[in-house]
């Protein structure tokens, strides 16, 4: 029994030490260079920089459609791709650009609001893109007067 354990031990020691001698010779320099290029490209990320993150329509009459444009610039070092833009309500419809925005280029996100609601109304638009954060939040707001209501303030 001792001889079997000794033989198995010697065979395994020879097997494990023989592989380590050739490990460094198995590295291919082409693969190392290719991995370095791939890792550098993975660091390239688009950045979405908006001129403003909120728009106030002021006081509007109920049911009066409104539109605004959120201008942005890709200040990153990779193409910006907007994959989705959703609003917090069906009364607000975002219209993002469909094409990628190159680094340094500008784009615009149109937002239509149908003027529904009453009093102070605030809606959010969530823009999903291939940025590091993954999404941006924009806001629109308005004070909506009921249709046919008298203007607010003192009456003479």
Automatic annotation (TrEMBL):
Domain of life, source organism: Bacteria
Lineage of producing organism: Bacteria, Pseudomonadati, Bacteroidota, Flavobacteriia, Flavobacteriales
The keyword Flavoprotein appears for this protein: no
Protein name: DUF1573 domain-containing protein
Record's keyword annotation contains Signal: yes
Keywords tagged on the record: Signal
Signal peptide stretch: 1-23
Entries under PANTHER family matching the protein: LIPOPROTEIN-RELATED, SIGNAL PEPTIDE PROTEIN
Stored Pfam families: DUF1573 (PF07610)
